[in-house]
Amino acid sequence: MRYIGSDILAKDLPKIIKSNFGSFDVYNYENNHSFIHADFNNKVKFLNGLTDYILSENNLLNYAQRTSKIKFEPNKKIFTKLYNNINSFLNSELESLILDEITDELKTILGEEYCLIDKKGNLIVQKDKIGKIGEYIFHVLLTDFFQLDCIIPKFKCITDRNMSVFGIDTLFLNTKENIIYFGESKVCKSIDNGIALINRSLNDYEAQINEEYKVVLSDTDAFKKSKEFIEIFEEHTQVCMTFSDFIESADIKSVGVPIFIAHGRNGETKVPEDYLITMKNRIKRKDFFGLKTKFITISFPIFDKTEFIKVIIKKVVKKLNDYRQKASTL
Q: Quick one: pLDDT band at residue 112, thresholds 50, 70, 90?
């Protein structure tokens, strides 16, 4: 993990470290992290700055990239790739919306058929779309900040963008230590809700990891994994039917569980240190399969879940249409 310009925050809490990561201040307390974007106390600036970072061309281009970085250049190939990557956040109904120009008739139809519009005419985004946005942000941080290698982007495991991604939310690899990271992400109104849902998932996480191994990791035909994973583990996945067999065959000593919670502030005035201590004290960590399990927890404040989703979906729709137009004119 890299830290730039680290410094100790407080004498009474000497383990809390602050570092810089682009437009974020990152606070770390015993592998619990909180990413605080600029203008944390200004709602409008915060939401616009945060969503602009999330949907930056560099992040969108390198979503789903496992090794090399793609440099943004304004050409047809790049705009087509941007279009395809951002397209995964939408379905055909959301893609067609010009959000400020929805007729009363369309509101009624969308509300009846897809529950996209509530009774007050507000946009409602389906749960799986919110989940995909969370998984995408999680992917960006695991790649760029934590320097882990993506085994397979989970959206590659679906054949229809209207489908929800099944199973574990992210699959990453630490190639230096040969540790596979099975990630779990939540987007919630508060960090308390996020932790409650995370703890519920962790109750049967061994079963989820087992299923992920059977369906994704051990399937050498259906899903294309990273070359690093193939080089290190494919000889074992080809002959092992269960994750327990795989552990023994590949001499696995440890597994990793990164946890990502994008959360609103729920009217609270908490500071980053509060999020760190809350995650450390309340997330129920345990070792899986008798192995040392390395947890990484991430608090990602988004100010207000509803407002955040509204802002980011509007920008997604606008960018999608812009990229489509630019790709078709070049």
A: very low
Closest CA to 172 of 159, 153, 190: 153
CA 111 to chain CA centroid, nearest Å: 28
Q: What is the mean pLDDT of residues 137-141?
A: 92
Q: Helix, strand, or coil here: 232?
A: helix
Cβ atoms 17, 9 nearer than 8 A: yes
Task: Answer whether 27's CB lies under 8 Å from 18's CB.
Answer: yes
d(CA 238, CA 112): 47
CA distance 147 to 204: 28
CB 156 within 8 A of CB 197: no
Cross-strand partners of 185: 260
The tens digit of pLDDT for each residue in 177-207 reads 999 999 999 988 889 889 999 998 999 999 9
- CA–chain centroid gap for 26, Å, is 17
Tally of structural domains, the chain = 1
Cα 227-229-233 angle, rounded to 5 deg: 125
- Helix (H) / strand (E) element for 44: namely helix 43-54
Q: Is the pLDDT of residue 222 over 90?
A: no
Decide if 167 is inside a domain: yes
- Helix or strand (DSSP H, E) at 63: none
Evaluate whether residue 216 is within a structural domain: yes
Instruction: List the structure tokens of 219.
Output: 């399937």
Q: At 25, which helix (H) or strand (E)?
A: strand 24-29
Q: Which residues, in sequence order, are bridge partners of residue 259?
A: 184, 297
Residue range of the domain that includes 147: 7-91+126-329
Least confidently predicted of 49-58, 89-98, 176-185, 229-238: 89-98
Identify the residue whose tokens are 């099944």. 166
Contacts of 67 (CB under 8 A, 6+ apart): 149, 226, 227, 228
